[in-house]
Structure prediction request, 107 residues.
Amino acid sequence: MGRLTALRGEVWLVDLGMAQKTRPVLILSVGYRDEERALVSYVVRTTSTRGTEYEVPHQAPKFLPGAFDVQSIGTVPDVQLIRRLTVCDTNTLTKVEDALKRWLALR
Prediction:
């Protein structure tokens, strides 16, 4: 079986290890080339919201109400991808990008 390929804007189920278990994440990184590291960067989707400016609400069929928490960013090897769950709508992806820029002071 070949490697799974996650695309920017997709929501995937990913094995984040013992500390965070298996969680849905929003893929933010662009695709990598053969000579590059096989990594994907993401923000975690949570149902335990706190109402901070760094949480972007997300609702989709078959999901409990929740949010993408841009304070929970990370990168994992693509071998930790389990399966694609859905594609995030453009409006929510833009809000995640804006919140991430605020969190990292990129503006």
Observations:
- The radius of gyration is 13 Å.
- DSSP finds one helix and six strands in the chain.
- The domain at 10-103 is CATH 2.30.30.110 (SH3 type barrels.).
- The mean pLDDT is 91.
